[in-house]
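Progress narrative, work stream C.
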Amino acid sequence: MSGRTRTRACPERTCVGCRKRSAKADLLRVVVIEGACVPDLRGTLPGRGAYVHPSLACLDLAIRRRAFARAFRRKGRAGTLTADAVRRRVQQAQP
């Protein structure tokens, strides 16, 4: 025996809202398309992605801290991003 385990490692990402690490499957990937934050449900949209927990608390915290602009490396006036589509997606996921 080589001492290796056969279980696959689960990729982890950090939520830009609460800054806690979680499994990639538990987070919602967000990308920027034409100046707006868009939820990437399948994780296949091109571009730089930021991850957030699918909860309004984490989303509001990320917006208040301007975490999306920082994660997407936007500066100045270009750093103001709209997250309306992400907010709608999170509200739909809430029970």
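Work stream C, second folded protein:
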Amino acid sequence: MNLVNIQGSGDIAITPASGRDDVASALERVDPTGSWRNWWHQASGVPVRLSDGASVPGATPVHRFSPLEGGAGPDPLLGINVGGHYLRLVRVCGGTVVGSREMRLGTGHESALSGISLRSFVELLTGDELSHEVQGVGIAWSAPRTSIGLRAMSILTEVGGEVFDLLDAGELDNALTKALGCPVLSWNDGEAVAAAEALARPPGEGRSLLALKLGTSFASGLALGTHQVSALPLQLAKCLPTSPPLECFAHPMTGLHGTARDALGAACVTEAFRRLADLPQADYEDYCRAAVRGHPVAMRLARSAARVVAELAHLVRNLGSPVDLVLSGRNLRQLPYRQMFTGLVRRELALHPSGVTLLDPAGDVSLSAALGAAALSRAHT
């Protein structure tokens, strides 16, 4: 059962109407404490409601993005990708990347973003020469999009502080615009990666592009053609796949066990590998190397992850047009593991041909997120 209402907040319509009781029973079974329903109410502003009959689809809400060169728009631009322990800054002038830097935050154990104030965050940005005299800023955050905007509801933003309080209230962009003296717009990191991938390699006629950014958890974004990304709350990490992960953990936001995050997020995969292989000190890199060597536990985890990727791609495909699928993220930075894992995904996709094509990413995921945030901001300023 997919517990993500991809159409946004409002009633979840059940067709045929006779199936409503079955869905209600399933909801009680998978969410016995009501944690997911509480999260949904908090995130969307309305409670979960099951109604009879088919929903009436409206126009898909979208965010436009534009090429970083040519036409009217602010120049130079600064694109920023905010990670848990780093910032990736990219300066774009005349459509060309003229500077890029990854800035470490903290010691690796505790992020400098923890409890950060607006003033400190502004000083962090303005202290780097890449930000000097920019005319527009786009920031990609690990913050899910809901029907009422970006929310500070992720592991990254749990650290709290003035910046994340403003982000959650929808007031951060205005505060940063005032402090930096130029337009600043924030985006979900999955949306930003999808925009960058579509700019680098536009999806074919009648196709969409689904980007999965694999990290501690994972983000997702859907590019619709060459100039738009979906603004729907595409929070695929919170799905309950029909192929259950080998080990199930409570999702940090919804409280559900067995979400797609358990199969694809580095934190969950690492913990599952430690438990199942009886290697309590293993880290994610150890898991990757073990999978490449053919370690039986690591291979079971990799195959489970590949099945979930294929299921998510088929889910999005069934919502509309054929899909070009791009997998990126720090989880795939080991080349031998990337090659092995993408081979497993292609095998899973081939079992159920449905118009999904797996493509290689256009570039480094952190750079892509920063560039995509800049492209989205350029189209909206």
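The chain has a mean pLDDT of 87. No further action is required on this item.
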